[in-house]
Automatic annotation (TrEMBL):
InterPro entries, alphabetized: TPR-like_helical_dom_sf
Gene3D superfamilies cross-referenced by the UniProt entry: Tetratricopeptide repeat domain (1.25.40.10)
Record lineage: Bacteria, Pseudomonadati, Pseudomonadota, Gammaproteobacteria, Enterobacterales
Name of the protein in its database record: Tetratricopeptide repeat protein
Domain of life: Bacteria
Species annotation: Pantoea trifolii
């Protein structure tokens, strides 16, 4: 089916999937553009739909890879409450990474702690870029 004949949900989903594919190929900026287009469709037409929150969560995550931290925070906050209901952590991961990168350690700690509370020691797998000792300190784990 041609793109212009699809529903808004199908269009947004296609754009997000294009972003995922580009990200897999290492095309971070192009991926962010596809996710941004998906986010615009979702904001305009899908605010009451679960896909809106899924897209905002994914968009925030790809923005982190582009070091666009303030935009990542804005996108991730849109999905935060919805993800909590789904027992998902991607938006919290985005917020933790963005705040940490911006030097807002106390704000980042709050999200690292929430992730640890939700997923336990899986946090060490979720954040391979952090040394285990650093993560233990961020979530106040004593070893």
């Amino acid at each position: 089916m041609e793109f212009h004949h699809k529903s808004w949900q199908e269009k947004a989903f296609d754009l997000a999937n294009q972003g995922i594919s580009l990200d897999t190929l290492g095309e971070k900026e192009a991926a962010a553009c596809s996710w941004a287009a998906a986010a615009e469709v979702a904001k305009a037409h899908l605010r009451d739909n679960d896909i809106y929150y899924w897209i905002m969560s994914g968009y925030g995550a790809v923005l982190i890879q582009c070091q666009r931290y303030l935009e990542a925070i804005e996108a991730a906050k849109e999905a935060l409450e919805w993800e909590a209901q789904q027992n998902q952590i991607l938006s919290r991961m985005t917020l933790a990474r963005a705040l940490y990168a911006l030097g807002a350690g106390d704000g980042a700690k709050s999200y690292f702690q929430q992730i640890y509370d939700m997923k336990g020691d899986d946090i060490f797998v979720a954040f391979p870029e952090f040394e285990p000792a650093t993560l233990r300190e961020l979530v106040s784990i004593r070893k």
